[in-house]
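Quick review question:
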């Protein structure tokens, strides 16, 4: 007997090459997996369920996939946008004062925000502080967790002049590799595969070559991907040219790093030729349109990557200077930014970015056998949206069907009513069952204020550009 039968819904199954629309559709869930999907009239005949849910006036679709995020920075949401050198000038002074309590408060806040906007998979990338994995495990969400590895000195880049080569500390590299490996061996496929892991050498410029290669081998030995910031900024390209005499893509190809094991994040500085080289190698791309737009003013080359046959997942990156963890925002911005970049309104249409947020995202993370579409046998990660909200109406079925464009260009995430992950309701009627949302909201405010007070008391930080903007009455 099925656990749940949803009926009378607009289904976006995302199976096949399009959005897999089913009018008046139904979906049955049993033991965490999709047991049947099709027309309501058929499933009513063939499925007996413990609970039947009338999803009339709802759209049911796969849960959204956020493939690259630094969730902890939600505790300093809004401190690093509208400026140059966002990382050093905006984020770094705050990062310096982020305690483990602040880190976890931010991570939990981002998880609440994501669940409420329909995210079911969280691709978080962080130092593996105690309790990090438990945030996702106890929230009942799906996660791909990457413990950050680098061989930068523990005190960071403080004291370095811009343009100096980063000094590598091999002992520090080993320490972070060991930490990450312990985390990985503890969490790999945990909770019946709900929690997944990757190796995360932070960038090819942030770790010595031997240790960079060691990460790839250790990942391969475990059948895991490597999640690497790649061509992420002019800082990185400058470091690579100075250290190795080559730009990042050519260097990665030369050392054998370009293959299907690689999840390459950002490609902000990659040329079209370099982007094609990476896509054709089988490597995947994580695309953070909102973040890179806000912090760099650049549109990453996702369209070229897709046209070269590569799989792209979307990522919300970080809230210090993207300000939100909302994949509806990323889908819309990805479509819009590329239309503007190419002066072509046919570029990245609504259906294609919806695929990036679902099935293509699952492919990029190597999880498309399990999630990303509503198909029999896959894990039941799905969301139900109220499509009677004013901003998505009317829902017309012909001559032009309006559901997908209205969702992509008008939905905010607040239309998401229910969220099911692994066949369990994580959110029902907008109430999250697995965690104490109110306590998390109160705590992130408290922890955010503690970090901010420490930054305010640090005399070194007085010259921050955003402080000047505030004094001028602009914040
Ligand atoms: Zn990142």
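Suggested answer, residue by residue:
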């Amino acid at each position: 007997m099925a656990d749940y039968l949803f009926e009378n819904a607009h289904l976006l199954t995302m199976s096949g090459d399009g959005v897999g629309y089913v009018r008046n559709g139904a979906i049955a869930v049993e033991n965490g997996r999709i047991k049947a999907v099709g027309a309501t009239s058929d499933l009513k005949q063939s499925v007996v369920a413990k609970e039947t849910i009338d999803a009339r006036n709802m759209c049911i679709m796969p849960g959204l996939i956020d493939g690259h995020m630094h969730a902890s920075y939600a505790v300093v949401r809004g401190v690093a946008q509208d400026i140059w050198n966002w990382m050093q000038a905006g984020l770094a002074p705050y990062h310096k004062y982020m305690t483990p309590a602040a880190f976890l408060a931010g991570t939990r806040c981002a998880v609440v925000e994501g669940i409420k906007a329909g995210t079911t998979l969280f691709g978080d990338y962080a130092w593996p502080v105690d309790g990090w994995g438990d945030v996702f495990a106890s929230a009942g969400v799906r996660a791909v967790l990457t413990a950050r590895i680098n061989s930068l000195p523990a005190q960071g880049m403080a004291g370095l002049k811009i343009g100096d080569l980063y000094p590598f500390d091999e002992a520090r590299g080993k320490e972070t590799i060991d930490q990450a490996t312990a985390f990985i061996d503890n969490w790999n496929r945990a909770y019946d595969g709900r929690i997944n892991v990757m190796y995360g050498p932070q960038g090819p410029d942030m770790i010595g070559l031997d240790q960079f290669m060691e990460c790839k081998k250790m990942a391969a030995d475990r059948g895991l991907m490597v999640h690497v910031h790649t061509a992420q900024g002019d800082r990185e390209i400058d470091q690579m040219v100075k250290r190795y005499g080559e730009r990042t893509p050519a260097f990665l190809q030369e050392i054998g790093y370009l293959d299907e094991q690689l999840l390459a994040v950002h490609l902000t500085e990659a040329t079209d030729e370099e982007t094609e080289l990476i896509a054709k190698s089988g490597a995947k791309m994580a695309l953070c349109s909102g973040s890179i737009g806000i912090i760099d003013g650049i549109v990453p080359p996702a369209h070229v990557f897709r046209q070269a046959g590569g799989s792209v997942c979307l990522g919300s990156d970080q809230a210090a200077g993207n300000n939100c963890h909302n994949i509806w925002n990323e889908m819309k911005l990805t479509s819009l930014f590329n239309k503007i970049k190419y002066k072509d309104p046919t570029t990245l249409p609504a259906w294609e970015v919806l695929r990036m947020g679902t099935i293509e995202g699952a492919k990029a993370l190597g999880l498309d056998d399990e999630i990303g579409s509503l198909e029999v046998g896959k894990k039941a990660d799905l969301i139900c949206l109220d499509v009677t909200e004013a901003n998505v109406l009317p829902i017309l079925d012909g001559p032009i069907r309006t559901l997908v464009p209205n969702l992509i260009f008008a939905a905010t995430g607040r239309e998401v009513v229910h969220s099911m992950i692994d066949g369990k309701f994580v959110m029902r009627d907008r109430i999250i069952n697995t965690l104490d949302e109110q306590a998390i909201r109160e705590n992130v405010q408290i922890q955010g204020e503690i970090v901010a007070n420490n930054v305010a008391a640090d005399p070194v930080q007085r010259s921050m550009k955003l402080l000047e903007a505030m004094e001028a009455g602009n914040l």
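Why it works: DSSP finds 18 helices and 17 strands in the chain. The chain has two domains: 2-62+373-432, 64-364.
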